[in-house]
Design brief:
By secondary structure, this protein is α/β, with parallel strands linked by helices. The protein contains 16 helices and twelve strands. The chain starts with a strand and ends with a helix. The structure holds pyridoxine-5'-phosphate.
């Protein structure tokens, strides 16, 4: 265990995100063979440590203790109380400030010291900046999984066998997609059972099966064994999935579906609106993952509403990560609105269909996938 993060702070802090950032920073410094201890505490404890070990009075934001031992890089103590005061915004700002303090402490452990004079200060600032960039770069590398339902929609329009979503799955993989998504609907309006079976057999990346939490679908999933199931609400009259699952209102039945799928060895993601009660309920029912329904953000009628919806997604992605859930996002995302979301480090996977298939009609599927990959990966 190269990085150990101990949280002794009584308030809410983005602990999981900090753990991940610590691991990534060690990788970015090429120091994965070294051990690093990070203690998150409050002003009272950091003031005691400051007095006892450095002979200084009062609290501070971060203290580093380097170790002479070869396997131990050292320890970093951070006061979340001070970080909170220093952060400009209560939730997203705190996460960012804690990461900055972590980087500052780490750069000290790597031998830099701003207190040695202007040259030392400049070197330290430069090193911190490099690590911030490296961390952000890694943060933006979410996975892109592509929903090929609409290739099947075109096929079903004539009731024949072209175009084939199985071929589409192979093309999106060759273009660099990280996974393939299909929604097997109860009414089989686009994807057919045969499509799911064949994609399962031929996909080289990951297969996500979207489905309703019904007995029929749970039995199909148990037989096909996709890499993950995303449970979605399903109405026969809807054009596409409208709104997220009401996990909070249906805890028992969704919890039951999650357990049955998990018992078959299939991890489960729940497609939910970015609402606190839905995310907390997703954790309670034992899901491994949530997919944030981005429809309200994507369909915002003006910039103000889009901004509010964006902020809500940032907050809910952070909450879900703190609760130990992996965060995916999807619905209504296109070449204009995905970039902002791709910069949210907590979102580790995007599920996008319609915009890519629509563009493919003009540019070809390969190019449409590559263009979206650039946006999602930030490259
Ligand atoms: N995620 C889920 C759970 C969905 O139901 C859909 C639509 O099928 C998508 C993502 C993809 O949405 P879009 O086709 O708008 O990109």
């Amino acid at each position: 265990m190269p990085a150990v993060v101990i949280n002794r702070y009584p308030g809410r802090i983005p602990e999981k995100a900090l753990e991940r950032a610590t691991g990534r920073l060690l990788r970015a410094c090429g120091a994965t063979h070294k051990e690093l201890g990070v203690l998150i505490t409050g002003d009272e404890e950091i003031a005691r440590i400051n007095k006892r070990w450095l002979g200084r009075k009062g609290p501070t934001n971060v203290i580093s203790f380097s170790q002479e031992e070869t396997t131990l890089l050292g320890d970093i103590v951070i006061s979340a109380d001070t970080a909170k005061r220093e952060a400009s915004d209560a939730l997203t700002g705190l996460s960012q400030r804690l990461t900055e303090l972590l980087i500052h402490g780490l750069v000290h452990l790597l031998g830099e010291d701003h207190e040695t004079g202007p040259e030392g200060a400049e070197r330290m600032q430069k090193r911190e900046q490099e690590l911030r960039i490296l961390l952000n770069k890694e943060n933006t590398m979410a996975d892109l999984c592509i929903n090929v339902d609409h290739i099947a929609t075109i096929r079903q329009a004539r009731g024949g066998d072209e175009p084939d979503p199985v071929a589409a799955a192979a093309i999106v993989e060759l273009a660099g997609a990280d996974g393939v998504v299909v929604h097997l609907r109860e009414d089989r309006r686009h994807i057919q059972d045969r499509d799911v079976r064949l994609i399962r057999e031929t996909a080289k990346t990951r297969l996500t099966l979207e489905m309703a939490a019904t007995d029929e679908m749970i039995a199909i999933a148990a037989g096909i064994k996709p890499d993950i199931v995303t449970l979605v609400p399903e109405k026969r009259q809807e054009l596409t999935t409208e709104g997220g699952l009401d996990v909070a209102g249906l805890e028992q039945s969704i919890g039951n579906a999650v357990s049955r799928l998990n018992d078959s060895g299939i991890p489960v993601s729940l497609f939910v609106d970015p609402e606190e009660d839905q995310i907390k309920a997703s954790r309670r029912v034992g899901a491994q993952c949530i997919e944030i329904h981005t429809g309200r953000y994507a369909e915002a009628k003006n910039a103000e509403v889009e901004e509010d919806e964006f902020e809500q997604i940032v907050k809910m992605a952070s909450l879900a990560t703190d609760l130990g859930l992996r965060v995916h996002a999807g619905h209504g995302l296109n070449y204009r609105n995905t970039g902002r979301l791709a910069a949210i480090s907590e979102i580790v996977e995007f599920s996008i269909g319609h915009a890519i298939i629509a563009r493919a009609a003009f540019t070809g599927l390969d190019q449409a996938v590559r263009e979206m990959l650039k946006i999602v990966k930030g490259i």
